[in-house]
User: Which sequence fits this backbone?
């Protein structure tokens, strides 16, 4: 559903430092209209700082932002009229009701949607009269999403929208994002959940240490790893010499070992032989196609959630 | 503007729903008003309180002191004897030292009354004995006893009432001793309010304006700073800043909500004061309204000032507490503050609450000005100005990263 009329948002060489820490270090990317664009990376990769610059909370030290047809250094109130923002962290007045919060946020914008429509969109109709302090974590996050969508924004920023939520609440948020995409909205999302990025994104930008280390569609990114298959299993703690004679190149992360192979049958056969010879049990073994986590692992030698 | 009004309405609604805010904002001032009125409203009763009284006797007959004057003097001096072991005498009487000029003494004591250091000055005028004698024999009006009180001082009002009662009793005694059973009086008390001629102030009328201001003060200091800091710490404000809402709009809406709470609190206090305790003070006067608004705005500014100085909601509450105790209890809100040690006077001198309270009481006719009227306006305005300066420079609207 990507509109080809050019990007709705583009940043070039964005930089931001806090003291000696370079939080954002020359980040560039473009977001097509009507697409879901994801910044994927571990905690501290610079995703949130990048997003906060685009949301108008912070100002970049340098770099160019082109957003909603404006080239700016800092986001203006007029641009905010067309933006919706779900912050990674943010509270609501605990003694206000859900409906009151949405009416309040609607009053901040020149143009807003009927509050009942927003309540329906985030499935909070039955909680409309509940005080914020009585909502569950998932309900609060849906309220936050409702507050971000109350002005029917063209561009929606979702900063780690599902962090800390249970699987059901996470699925609910995903469903809302999918509906936004179907409705032609442009969504910029940050996450450190590989499954989330894969499930929702048209484009993914992988960030680490304030830099973009890979960029493309999920399929393009995993295709970089070739046609290899990945074998993953857990082992008990082993002495280094136990690994001598291990078939293939293994990447070890704690007790988990990952083996990448172009010839699955041959590698599996060797692996099982090694296991028998060394007396090493291979627990929780899985065989799968590469995913974004593997892309990150192959680029950095680390896992996303480290 | 819709954002401002929506914010105002919802911050008012949220405050009403929060039990803690409701207690401090509404119930606490009402409770304090009730307790203080019930406990201290009876202060005029004998043996419960000690009044400083100055006594000047100007009645010098040809053969020395006038006889009636000496009797009156004795009566008041007898009231300065403690009624029992460990009990306070009703009056502590000051008289001119031997050789001291009586008229100079009167001038000094009048000023002391005006400043609230002496409750009342009783003056036995020249010719008092002769006039009393004439009155007793039916050939003249009652002899007048001069009492100078301070109209705004609750203690002064009570002391003057006691002097009146003493004079009435004296009358009965004199007439009985003289064997005359007449309805006319030999002596009468003429109370003169220094610089004014109003009626004595009931304690509840003295207290009510103080309670109103205390409510504004506590709300401003604790509720305003607490809400701002809590909203910042909990990143409620951050949610606002990613919308087109501007800081000034938020400030306006929040402030209107606070002022609405002040109006509610004021209305409740006045109703309880009037119908519960018989307060008769009327706030519907232009100058009184000016002081009420000035007070509410000053304490709103102080709340923002505390929020500017605090890093977190917790440290904000610590600062507010540090300011609250001395300012509230030394501002003469509950008791007429007469003479304080010098170091405490400094707090009184800079406390905006003191000036607003004095101005409000003066405008209501329940208090005297001890400072020029302009100061009662300028000092609070100065605090507002200072707060605005600090808030603009220092208040962080978002959490530090």
Assistant:
């Amino acid at each position: 559903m990507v509109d080809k009329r050019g990007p709705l948002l583009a940043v070039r060489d964005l930089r931001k430092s806090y003291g000696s820490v370079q939080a954002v270090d020359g980040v560039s990317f473009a977001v097509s209209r009507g697409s879901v664009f994801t910044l994927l990376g571990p905690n501290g990769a610079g995703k949130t700082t990048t997003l906060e610059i685009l949301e108008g909370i912070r100002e970049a030290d340098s770099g160019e932002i082109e957003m909603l047809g404006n080239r700016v250094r800092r986001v203006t109130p007029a641009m905010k009229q067309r933006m919706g923002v779900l912050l990674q962290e943010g509270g609501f007045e605990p003694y206000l009701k859900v409906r009151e919060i949405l009416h309040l946020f609607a009053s901040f914008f020149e143009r807003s949607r009927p509050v009942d429509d927003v309540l329906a969109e985030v499935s909070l109709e039955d909680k409309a009269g509940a005080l914020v302090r009585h909502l569950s974590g998932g309900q609060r996050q849906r309220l936050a999403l409702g507050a971000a969508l109350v002005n029917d924004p063209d561009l929606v920023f979702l900063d780690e929208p599902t962090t800390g939520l249970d699987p059901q609440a996470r699925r609910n948020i995903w469903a809302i994002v999918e509906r936004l995409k179907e409705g032609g909205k442009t969504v910029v999302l940050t996450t450190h959940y590989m499954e989330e990025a894969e499930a929702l994104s048209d484009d993914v930008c992988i960030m680490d240490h304030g830099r973009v280390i890979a960029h493309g569609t999920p399929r393009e990114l995993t295709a970089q790893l070739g046609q290899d298959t990945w074998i993953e299993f857990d082992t008990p703690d082993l002495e280094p010499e136990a690994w001598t004679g291990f078939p293939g190149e293994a990447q070890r992360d704690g007790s988990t070992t990952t083996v990448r192979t172009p010839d699955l049958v041959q590698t599996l056969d060797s692996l099982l032989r090694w296991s028998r010879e060394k007396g090493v049990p291979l627990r929780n073994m899985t065989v799968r196609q590469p995913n974004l986590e593997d892309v990150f692992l192959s680029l950095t030698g680390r896992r996303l959630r480290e | 503007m819709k954002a401002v009004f929506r914010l105002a309405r919802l911050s008012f609604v949220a405050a009403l729903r929060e039990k803690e805010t409701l207690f401090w904002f509404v119930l606490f001032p009402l409770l304090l008003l009730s307790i203080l009125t019930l406990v201290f409203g009876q202060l005029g009763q004998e043996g419960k309180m000690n009044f400083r009284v100055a006594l000047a006797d100007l009645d010098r007959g040809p053969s020395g002191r006038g006889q009636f004057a000496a009797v009156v003097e004795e009566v008041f001096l007898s009231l300065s004897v403690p009624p029992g072991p460990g009990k306070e005498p009703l009056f502590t009487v000051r008289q001119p030292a031997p050789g001291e000029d009586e008229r100079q003494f009167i001038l000094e004591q009048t000023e002391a009354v005006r400043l609230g250091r002496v409750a009342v000055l009783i003056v036995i005028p020249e010719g008092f004995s002769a006039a009393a004698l004439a009155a007793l024999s039916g050939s003249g009006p009652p002899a007048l006893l001069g009492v100078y009180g301070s109209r705004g001082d609750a203690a002064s009002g009570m002391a003057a009432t006691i002097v009146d009662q003493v004079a009435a009793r004296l009358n009965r005694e004199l007439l009985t001793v003289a064997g005359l059973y007449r309805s006319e009086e030999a002596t009468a008390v003429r109370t003169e309010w220094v610089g004014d001629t109003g009626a004595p102030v009931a304690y509840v009328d003295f207290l009510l304006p103080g309670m109103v201001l205390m409510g504004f003060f506590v709300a401003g200091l604790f509720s305003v700073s607490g809400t701002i800091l809590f909203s910042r710490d909990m990143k409620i404000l951050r949610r606002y800043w990613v919308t087109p809402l501007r800081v000034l709009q938020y400030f306006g809406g929040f402030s209107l909500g606070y002022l609405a709470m002040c109006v509610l609190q004021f209305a409740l206090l006045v109703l309880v004061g009037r119908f519960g305790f018989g307060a008769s003070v009327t706030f519907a006067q232009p100058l009184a309204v000016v002081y009420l608004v000035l007070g509410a705005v000053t304490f709103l500014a102080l709340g923002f000032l505390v929020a500017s100085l605090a890093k977190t909601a917790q440290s904000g509450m610590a600062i507010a507490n540090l300011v609250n105790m001395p300012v509230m209890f030394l501002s003469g809100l509950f008791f007429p503050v007469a003479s304080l040690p010098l170091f405490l006077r400094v707090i009184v001198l800079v406390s905006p609450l003191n000036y607003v309270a004095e101005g409000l009481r003066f405008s209501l006719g329940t208090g005297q000005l001890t400072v020029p009227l302009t100061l009662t306006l300028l000092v609070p305005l100065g605090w507002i100005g200072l707060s605005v300066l600090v808030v603009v420079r220092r208040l962080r609207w978002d959490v530090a990263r």
About this structure: The mean pLDDT of chain A is 88. Chain A touches chain B at residues 18, 55-57, 77-78, 80-81, 83, 85, 87, 89-93, 95-96, 100, 103-105, 107-110, 131, 144, 147, 151 (CB under 8 Å). The CA atoms of residues 94 and 134 of chain A lie 8 Å apart. Chain A is about 30% helix and 30% strand.
